[in-house]
Amino acid sequence: MNPAWLEFLPWPELRVCLVALLVAGIGSLLGSWLIRLFTRLSRALPFAHEMLQRARQPIRLLMPLLGVQMVIGAASDDLLWIDGARRIVSLAMIAAFTWLGLRAADAVQRVIVMRHPVNVADNLQARRIQTQTRVLVRTLSVFVVIFGVASMLMTFPAARQFGTSLLASAGLAGLAVGFAAKPVLGNLIAGLQIALTQPIRLDDVVIVDNEWGRIEEISGSYVVVRVWDDRRLVVPLQWFIEHPFQNWTRRTSSLTGSVFLWVDYTTPLEPLRQEVTRLCEEARHLWDGRVKVLQLVDTNERAIQLRVLASSADSSLNWDLRCYLRENLVNFIQNHYPHCLPQLRATVGSAADTEAEADTRTAPAPSGKDDQVVEAERQPPV
């Protein structure tokens, strides 16, 4: 920069502003050129390419700010507004670096998600990796934001004094902050536990509060469960650590379901077993071929209970298979053995007949002379 022509400007503040604008323009052009260059060089590297794509805008902001920071830092301390300008540029740079850190973390998540898709048949490993990545990246993003905000506050002298006073009373301040931020910290710690131990993963089938659904989203503070009727159940992360719940896809998505039928004691079981076999073979798109059983599991004074076990590749297919078996078995019994449906047996008669029958059973039988008298009375006269 030639200082000769700058001497024609009457105010030194105007000189610094003009130089800062020129350096910012050069930095912006240089940043755009570097981004295009590295983007072409990184096309064969998916991770580096995605990182550059996500960091493009923060870098375009950082390059001019670095140039302005150099100019303002070299300027004289006697300028009227130099302290305020330096603080504003410092805050902008901290914000830009924070933005860059968030974009870099998001780029890592995107690359891992692309390399481990869940839209495949056996997606257990992919769901495990995606769950860990999403939770850890969101936790890292929270720490990046906290660090950026803290760095901004530390540029102010009053904030530094406040931080010193907090360190002097660390015990009391830590206790107060701990009680105030207990829900936030609890969910944050629960998110780390879920990421490491993985009691739930994305797309897991769970029973939460007697609601059947799939894990749709795991954020830094809550889990979204998509219920079977497209409702959304929002559950705090800490709830999954403190309460029991059912996970139907913890190890594998295969599931064995049951169908219960009440029938009469006269029902033949072997034809029903053959019908169950036929129905399962017919529904090969629902039945995975592992389990196919019909058993008599309970009895009472009026009927017997049959249980049909059948397995499927996942819970949705198993639900359809159970409904299919239940419907067709009921139709089979109605068409072939209608008398084998549950029946209530009872003796029907009038009240007088019932009392007469009871008197006959309870009255003593005549014997001896009385029998002869009764027999004589029954004889017709000669």
Task: Tell me briefly what this model is.
This protein has 382 residues and is of the alpha+beta class. It has 3 domains: 7-115, no CATH class; 125-249, SH3 type barrels; 255-340, 2-Layer Sandwich (Alpha-Beta Plaits). The protein contains 13 helices and 8 strands.
Which helices and strands occur, and which strands form pairs?
Elements: H1 3-6, H2 12-41, H3 46-74, H4 82-115, H5 124-153, H6 157-168, H7 170-180, H8 182-197, E1 205-208, E2 211-218, E3 222-227, E4 232-236, H9 237-242, E5 246-247, E6 255-263, H10 269-282, E7 292-299, E8 304-312, H11 315-336, H12 351-362, H13 369-378
Helix pairs in contact: 2-3, 3-4, 4-5, 5-8, 10-11
Identify low-pLDDT runs.
Answer: 169-173, 365-382
Query: What is CATH's topology name of the largest domain?
Result: SH3 type barrels
Backbone CA Rg? 41 Å
Helix content: 55-70%
Largest sheet composition? 5 strands, antiparallel
Number of strands: 8
Secondary-structure element order, N to C: HHHHHHHHEEEEHEEHEEHHH
Number of domains: 3
Looking across the biggest beta sheet, what order are the strands in?
A: 4-3-2-1-5
**CATH architecture label name of the largest domain:** Roll
- In CATH, what is the class of the largest domain? Mainly Beta
Given the helix and strand composition, which structural class is it? alpha+beta
Q: Can you give the mean pLDDT?
A: 77
Cα-to-Cα separation, first versus last residue = 161 Å
| Tally of DSSP helical segments | 13
Strand content: 5-15%
